[in-house]
Structures
1.
Amino acid sequence: GDSVTQMEGPVTLSEEAFLTINCTYTATGYPSLFWYVQYPGEGLQLLLKATKADDKGSNKGFEATYRKETTSFHLEKGSVQVSDSAVYFCAMIIQGAQKLVFGQGTRLTINP
Amino acid sequence: DTEVTQTPKHLVMGMTNKKSLKCEQHMGHRAMYWYKQKAKKPPELMFVYSYEKLSINESVPSRFSPECPNSSLLNLHLHALQPEDSALYLCASSRLADYNEQFFGPGTRLTVL
């Protein structure tokens, strides 16, 4: 079946460190891929997306590249800030489907 | 206007109460969704409306009753809930139901006593 697997958290980093959160997917069809971020006490915000192989999504210094050969969509940021502390969800939707499939979420804490 | 709004932000209700959650979007989106999110878990899909018609019900108990009065509004009517129904209820919308990114509201934090 369709599924998304994220690296287990929690992840704790110091400010200005490099961030990678791994995400891989298993899809029966052709997916679009997303990263959502959820700050404490809030809803989900769409962080970035990619709709076809080799697309790179980027926003607020975060990047992720759609790698069809490795079925991956890893989230990266070169220099994290305390304000990036949140839960990050990798998600996909299969063409023709109506349902977002989420990973389990990765809690990120950035210390000053 | 590029946001999804939800009211109320917080709701406390007893098991015999009837209450409603409301969601609104003015982005011209034709698909709207209800999700339930428990602590430290991803959102779980409950219902999908496409062009104001219910297209997906993820086997949700009948004590949750969705309604889509028009393309901008989505309600979730609650009746005879259980304490285990306490959660964050998220509304989302997308341009179309098929293959489009979804935009989420801030959620309603529901506590059932």
2.
Amino acid sequence: GAVVSQHPSWVICKSGTSVKIECRSLDFQATTMFWYRQFPKQSLMLMATSNEGSKATYEQGVEKDKFLINHASLTLSTLTVTSAHPEDSSFYICSARDVQGHEKLFFGSGTQLSVL
Amino acid sequence: QKEVEQDPGPLSVPEGAIVSLNCTYSNSAFQYFMWYRQYSRKGPELLMYTYSSGNKEDGRFTAQVDKSSKYISLFIRDSQPSDSATYLCATVNEKLTFGTGTRLTIIP
């Protein structure tokens, strides 16, 4: 199947700093990428939909100024958690859909963020 | 009412048993149905993908969709300890909607 690379796989940072997470589609072009967060023993919660070359669409309750999303190319989307706080500690996962419009989504391996 | 309902478990079965995982959904507009497997601290992995009502088989896995009752199932035959994971059902309309996931443990 298609490969989505997510980096880093884990990060520890101090409160107040910003953290950038990268999501790359390695063998296909992705017009749309999705960012999820997942708390322990819970399902994935969609944070935002990222479309190449346009502004991201955020789900209700997700602060767009705190979770900055950039989808500058068909193979790369980034999520920046700005001024991170301990409550932002979570597992963040990206997924990508290819340009052919297939309904299948392929997921990155996730990033565990711990804010001290 | 949640769009996709899934029993969170946990579910424990002995090795070799047949596992049945189920979800219900509320929106008849959903057309695509998927099952993902997620190991701890990993991203979900697509297991099965179906479009219409009926069965789809892939090795030990069978996905079943009944659109008339809005019911989707995943069966695992000859279950192995390596099948221990969280299984998420998902449907697609404008966006992907997940069930809460079922934690499955296969006991050797």
3.
Amino acid sequence: GQQLNQSPQSMFIQEGEDVSMNCTSSSIFNTWLWYKQDPGEGPVLLIALYKAGELTSNGRLTAQFGITRKDSFLNISASIPSDVGIYFCALPSNFGNEKLTFGTGTRLTIIP
Amino acid sequence: DGGITQSPKYLFRKEGQNVTLSCEQNLNHDAMYWYRQDPGQGLRLIYYSQIVNDFQKGDIAEGYSVSREKKESFPLTVTSAQKNPTAFYLCASSTQGWGADIQYFGAGTRLSVL
């Protein structure tokens, strides 16, 4: 299967700071998805990207689909306590089936 | 309220016991999925089903079984053959299960071994 590398693994930041995380894949894909998982809950979709170069915002979140179609980044501006959780990138299979491959996640902790 | 309901939230398994995790959705989605999540790892696909009475193995199906008798329900059985069952189990569903179909997740079941 494809390799999907997500970094950093964890981040410790102060409230109000901006956050940036990224994912890279070994293959080209047509869609990038970003999910957030709150502690003890299931992941919730944040942003879906469908076109190379696409930049999409959702409130304080901004995500971009890399031009090479092998990478994506997610930025969070002016972090707040409820941003705590694990952020996953995910890629659907290129073969038109249902399989999603998830990154290993970026765990965000906000230091008081 | 439309959504995916997983139960129970917490489950304990004794040695040699089979346990079944419930997943129900009222989103009228055709496709349903089961994932396993271990600490520090991403989600790994156990089984998926694109239509009633049909299901396929995912990447880590050994020691698990599923059924899809109804569109709304996709229960997962963790059998005694699964030697390391302690994990967080997540159920998801999507409209059709093809292409860039968005998957929506339940709140999860945490399984521990006594």
4.
Amino acid sequence: DGGITQSPKYLFRKEGQNVTLSCEQNLNHDAMYWYRQDPGQGLRLIYYSQIVNDFQKGDIAEGYSVSREKKESFPLTVTSAQKNPTAFYLCASSPDASGTYEQYFGPGTRLTVT
Amino acid sequence: DAKTTQPTSMDCAEGRAANLPCNHSTISGNEYVYWYRQIHSQGPQYIIHGLKNNETNEMASLIITEDRKSSTLILPHATLRDTAVYYCIVRPLGNEKLTFGTGTRLTIIP
């Protein structure tokens, strides 16, 4: 089946540790996105990538880093500099970043930092 | 980007049509109306989008008023699986970003 996979579904870390969230897609999409969702809130854009080896900051990039070495993969690292890392993280992809197409979302990773 | 206003919550009886309103009075000419929904603890799911004409697909219909200042998403025969938070998003063509508000929590009542 084509789609977006995120792993793991639940992740627990101690404060001060960096953690990397996985996002893989086999849809052959050029664009990929990372969003964060807090309880009762909408999604906020962290980073996006329009093409391999290129990415741009979204609205809340501080404390996060990404890489796009392969078309199908867009991992997100939550660094110790992120003040409130506990959240639900969602990865998405679309055929391109023109805004013409809808975005397809993965199932999400719920990160808890204590 | 234009701001959207949606009711916080709505109920609908199973088997009836669910009509979800959205106000976007500051929408501009190149902005599309998108609808997504999010079932609890899952990623959002695309439903439908439109510019000024009414649109229909296998999931829903989208009715956009002539002045484009509001729209209604219609789920023709709601089932329990349609219980979710529904987001109305206004997105300029060429904008890579989806700006999600808090949406409408739709509960389908058996």
